[in-house]
Every structure is written in structure tokens, then in C-alpha cells.
Design goal:
Layout lengths: L2 H22 L1 H28 L9 H34 L1 H6 L5 H29 L8 H28 L3 H6 L3 H4 L15 H9 L2 H13 L6 H30 L3
Helix pairs in contact: 1-5, 2-3, 2-5, 3-5, 3-6, 3-10, 5-6, 6-10, 6-11, 10-11
């Protein structure tokens, strides 16, 4: 077997390990879905009537209009929330001694992190299905073709892949599992400082400029355009560039941290 084949086989083994953990503890997946679902119900049924009145071009106004507007933002919150679990699981492996056992085996260096990332990505997609199901159940009616849905899934998967690698790097940088559970929390804050819940034009000048240029806004606007039939403009290109840039930088940072932790640990 070539080195690539060994790496692929080892990564598949680590992926099966992570999937078995997820199946053994399904409550974690449900918990990851719970937060965005609570936000969805809260914003639609508590704030939606008022916020929807101020929206233009999203149906007839009111709660139904706001539901159509906010679902893309909720999907981004789902991706950001699900990524947090990666930091915790990576930090748990790095501090729990299992990596020292893996180090004694002929396992590819990239396999452990790849297993975590791909496992978390699959979990994130499963959580997104649950959130979309709840959105449809309460009245969300997207105006999207099959091709648009496919493109939306691709944008979400790419952005999730980027945030998961970032979360994995933050987990490697953490000194404990407790620290790893806190450091990625900014990922759940940034969607609220984007166009996910209100148009950026309604924000104060300084906050509006930040919201327009941070990565969550172009991703949200791309999803909104794909699902509701609105204009996407250059948002899709910016969203892809942000996703690829975050993924590449986070991957390089994670590999460097992992190799450093390996070198610092006794053999």
C-alpha cells in the first residue's frame, strides 16, 4: 500500500471511532440541535411579529416574513454551535492519554484529526437536517429548486468544514477540556453580529461595517438567496473565499499544534 492508502485507511478507522462515539451518545447530537431550534422558536414566535413588520421583499410581512428571513441565519448558528463539540472532543483526546496510545501504533499523523473533522462534519449535517425539518414544520416555505438546495448544502458543508477545522485547532491549543469548551464560544456570537437576524442596514455605523465584512454575513446572504430566490450578487464568491481561507489557515495551525504536542509529549 502507498502512504496515501495507509493515511486513508487510518483516517477511516478514526472516523469509525468518532461515529461510534456519536451513536453511543445520541444526546449530544440532540443537544447540538436543541440550541438553534430554541433560537428559531424564540425569534419567530417572540420577536418575529415585530421584526417581520420592518422587512421588505419577504412575503406580506409579519411573523411569516421573518421566518423566511431568519432561517438562513439559524442554519449558520447551527453550523457554529455544532463545531464547538470538535474542540471538546479533540481536547479530551489530547489530555486523556489516548493520543499516547495512538503514538505507539503505526498510525498516520493526519488520521486522528481527520477522523475528528469528518465525524463532526457528518454530525453537523445530521443536525442541519433536524433544524430544517423543524423550520418546515412551523411554516418555512423555501422557493428553491433542487439545484439551489444542492448549492445551499454545498455552501453549508464548506463553511462547516472550515469552522470545524478552526474548532479543532482551538481544542489543540487549549490546556484542558474546560478551556476548550469556552474558547470557541465566539463562533456562536458572530452570527448575531451579521445579517442573520436583522438587515445590516438597520445597525449603527460601526457595527454595520463590521457585520458587512465578517465571514458570517456573505455565507448567510448566499444561503438566503439560494433558498428564497433572492439576489446573491458577489456574496457566494466572498463566502467561498472566506471558507477556503479559514479552512486552510486552521488546518495548518492544527497540524502545527498537533506536531508540537507530539514532540513535547514523552515517547
Amino acid at each position: 500500500m502507498t502512504s496515501f492508502a495507509y493515511t486513508f485507511a487510518d483516517s477511516a478507522t478514526m472516523l469509525r471511532r468518532n461515529i461510534k462515539h456519536q451513536l453511543r451518545y445520541p444526546s449530544l447530537t440532540l443537544m447540538l440541535a436543541g440550541l438553534p431550534i430554541v433560537f428559531l422558536l424564540l425569534f419567530v414566535y417572540v420577536f418575529g411579529g415585530q421584526l417581520g413588520t420592518g422587512l421588505a421583499g419577504h412575503g406580506t410581512g409579519g411573523r411569516g416574513a421573518y421566518l423566511t428571513y431568519v432561517v438562513p441565519g439559524i442554519l449558520i448558528v447551527t453550523v457554529a454551535s455544532a463545531a464547538l463539540g470538535t474542540a471538546i472532543s479533540v481536547a479530551s483526546d489530547m489530555t486523556g492519554g489516548i493520543i499516547d496510545r495512538f503514538r505507539t501504533m503505526a498510525i498516520s499523523r493526519a488520521a486522528v484529526l481527520t477522523g475528528h473533522v469528518i465525524g463532526s462534519l457528518l454530525q453537523t449535517l445530521a443536525v442541519l437536517v433536524l433544524v430544517v425539518g423543524v423550520s418546515l414544520a412551523i411554516g418555512f416555505r423555501p422557493d428553491a429548486s433542487a439545484l439551489n438546495w444542492l448549492a445551499a448544502v454545498g455552501v453549508l458543508a464548506l463553511f462547516a468544514f472550515a469552522l470545524i477545522w478552526l474548532s479543532a485547532a482551538l481544542g489543540l491549543a487549549a490546556k484542558s477540556v474546560e478551556t476548550a469548551s469556552n474558547t470557541p464560544m465566539f463562533l456562536t456570537l458572530l452570527p448575531f453580529l451579521s445579517s442573520g437576524f436583522v438587515p445590516t442596514a438597520t445597525m449603527p455605523a460601526g457595527l454595520r461595517q463590521f457585520a458587512e465584512y465578517e465571514p458570517f454575513t456573505p455565507v448567510t446572504q448566499t444561503l438566503r438567496g439560494l433558498l428564497t430566490g433572492g439576489s446573491i450578487g458577489t456574496h457566494a464568491i466572498v463566502a467561498i473565499l472566506w471558507s477556503v481561507g479559514i479552512a486552510l489557515a486552521s488546518y495548518l495551525w492544527a497540524v502545527r499544534l498537533y506536531n508540537r504536542r507530539r514532540a513535547a509529549s514523552p515517547n
